Amino acid sequence: MMTNVKISGYQLALLIMGFLFGSTAVLNPTAMAGQDAWLAYILAWVGGFMLIWLYVRIALINPSLTLVEILKVTFGKYLGTVIALLYIWYFLHLAALVLRDFGEHMNVTVFYRTPMTFIISCFALLIAYCLRKGLEVTGRAAEILMPYLFIFVIIIFFLLIPEYDTNNLFPFLEKGLTPVIQVAFGVLTFPFGETVTFLMIFPALYSPGQLKKVSFAAFGVMGFIILGIIVRDLLSLGPDLLTRLVFPPSLSTELTPELQLEPLISVNFLLGGWVKITVCLYAALVGIAQLLGLNDYKHLVLPLVLLAVGLAMWLYEDLFKMMDWTANVYPYYAFPLQFGIPLLILLVAKIRKLA
Amino acid sequence: MALNIILLVIIAIIMVLLDLPGLLKIEKKNKIKVLISYFLLLLTGFTLGLLLILEREPVSPTVIIERMLNLILGIGL
Predict the structure, then answer these.
(1) Residues A2-354, CATH architecture
(2) Of A71, A156, A334, B27, which has the highest C-beta tally within 10 A?
């Protein structure tokens, strides 16, 4: 099944970049670090490079195997299947989380009176269509659409320059390093650690020799772009306002004189969110198909997307609960899946090699 | 509420009608497995949607995860 799917290095890089951009740039998870948001982000970014190194190592040790297959090889049929089920749940949950983020953002900023279920369902329909067409089509669509994301980010960054105030970066480390490290840990798990999902996609790369270069380049480029967004929001809004806002970029774009740029933020979220949810659901679908020994996952697309929509609506009572859970619970929930188990896989592989 | 339930039923029927030609073409070896997993996922999604419409949904997975982490880590998250 996976051997039939092939994407180019450029397409994989765009998928990784869109995935990282996802809801990160709209929610700004570093906001709680105030004026040190940029430092918290850079610390997380460095950690993110270590994580992607870990994932690439695992993929290179197990070429042409997806995470589900690697788990079975590493931990045996039964324990491997249990851990694989955990990952399939995680991918589905992650897709639902991003769907909900998208629904909340659209509800708050653009479609005030439209029911969130309708917004989420429309977006889910588009994703279902992509999943039915396959990963290659998503990759090709990313080639066409993702450049707009970069262009919009650059346009907004430069148009806001008159609003920047460098005093917003100071006082440096006012509350010490501990809060910065706490925020950095959160950012490490959202979005960097979430790229563990790509262990389900790496085998689809047409030239496996490019994997390391492509992954690191995508991490570097998108990491730099998100840093630009964080610095932009911090310089234009200031640390006090930044910590109080749910969607900081939506307000920072309002500052542009005589221009209404907020829709560009929504379009960017649409592009990044589309890539992220598609990748997550694709990973869940391939995982289910491989566990059941099916030849094709495409028959399961529509019921799984329906489940993801239901899950997105079920997850939280409101926007504030969502923000609280994402900041305080999610890092502890995701870290074992993003770092603990992949590290174990690598260690077991190394021990087997030595033995 | 009734309208929402009708809409949900229509969506589920459309999904099955869209997928049916493909489901019927699956090779015999995998047919049962695909059909079981297909209808299991569909039923789960449909039931969840129905419970949400009726406002009788069970405890959210985020709450369960939070409780489990509190239990395992022993800290108030």
Answers:
(1) Up-down Bundle (1.20)
(2) A71
